[in-house]
Amino acid sequence: MGKADIPLSLHDKVALVTGGGSGIGFAAALSLAQAGAKVVIADINETRGKASTLKISQLAHNVHFVPVGVSQSASVREMIDTTVRVYGRLDIAVNNAGIGPDSVAIANLDEGSWDRLIATNLTGVALCLKWELQQIIAQGGGHLHDTLRPHEGMAAYAATKHGILGLTRVAALENGKHGIRVNALTPGGIETELTSAYVKDPRFTAEMNARTSVFGRFAQPCEIAQVVVWLASESSSYITGSQYQLMVALGWPDNCEDSSWSHALVNSVAEPTGRSWDDG
Fold this sequence. Notes:
The protein is built from nine helices and nine strands.
């Protein structure tokens, strides 16, 4: 069977991954490259993004880094323009960049934190969709993918992520006629460098782990990335406007007396104004 005949092959496709410097984003970029795609890693952290680009370039050809601040329209547009300038087109976009929440109840909502989360997680995805769709519509088709994950005590964060789901579904409805598919992915607990540090925390017992997942463990970033590749491939050609929950249960324990550990598990630097849940 030739490479072009493999259903999951992304040979000669051009893929863009925001927040691609680490965590799920890095795993997605690597898996897309291994499936044959030309990959652009976009991240606000240039040091991290360039290092990840170098790692992937040693395993697969055609990978490029571009800095981006997804909350700024001009930066997002430049990201798309650079992608097209380097590789000639854009076929696949994984809108993964975002910042994490302050784990507080709605009654204690911090307005500044709310504004930062809305600007990055919701407006950021909307801006990415705007410029990506304009490019892909002009080309005649492609696939866009958004990530989201809400938790108790994270009102602003949950609002942005449910907003992303709404954007995903509307974008799918509006753009199916252009041959464009738009889907959302909801990952649960993911084992990154950051979460690994907290697995050693005495509060994170085997019982908690078992209640977090029916498998009694966190998912590996590569396991999430394989779903990204599948959604980007022709194997999912009739799927759009869908949300894929990869939590293998309810996600996080719902009655933990000290919920700070679940908040800490999902935080890492993504933008100067906050912390990212997936870029461990």
